[in-house]
Amino acid sequence: MSDEPIDDRAADHTADHTADDHADNRYAMFAQRYADEQIPWDTGITPPEIVTVVAELPTGRALDLGCGTGTNVRFLAQHGWQADGIDFVPLAIERARQKLADFPPGQAVAYCHDVTRLSELAALRPPYDLVVDIGCGHSLPLQTQPGYAQVIHDLLRPGGVFMLFSHQPSEERPGWTPDDVRRLFGPYFNIVWQVINDDTTTGRPSGWYRLVKPAEISG
Ligand SMILES: C[S@@+](CC[C@H](N)C(=O)[O-])C[C@H]1O[C@@H](n2cnc3c(N)ncnc32)[C@H](O)[C@@H]1O
Whole-prediction pTM value? Predict the structure, then answer.
């Protein structure tokens, strides 16, 4: 469990982002959704795409970006991974910490923090073998997205896997098309697998992507 006080973190977020209306709006929207229990993504079920990758990979260190209430952090820890999760909504992190309370200290940790400021979270434990983003990155402010891609690259070990689920954009909501994913992440990763489909909870056109950070070339 992280010792980071949840309420202080929320206050920090607001203070640091007054100049960024988009970020503030997204934060307010997500915080309200959790407060109102309008969270259809919070199914308590780990997606089969994550189940498959966890069955294939040797256990290691994993990071879940936008972890919500910690369902997938808990799944990873149950399967022997040392797992960290990050979300900026205090209520989500409070619930995640409840779900993770039974694991040994350090095996499954939930941080209340903004994923666009990962380099400020000194408690992170890179290099990670697996990074997961299920529905978080696609709604980040546009100007933060290139930096987000680079930090994920920097946090992963060479050969590490990045599993990404993102909605496609619509008139009402932001999102990433497969071209957006290639443009943002292509400079850092090989996209080894992708499935374009409809989100099973919302019906929105979506994509799952498996990206691999190229191994270092020796010699
Ligand atoms: C669609 S939900 C998915 C939650 C979780 N991955 C799941 O599958 O249950 C997106 C999550 O990303 C979080 N999020 C969005 N922007 C964020 C940011 N800048 N920093 C941290 N978390 C963020 C939201 O609070 C929300 O919990």
Answer: 0.91
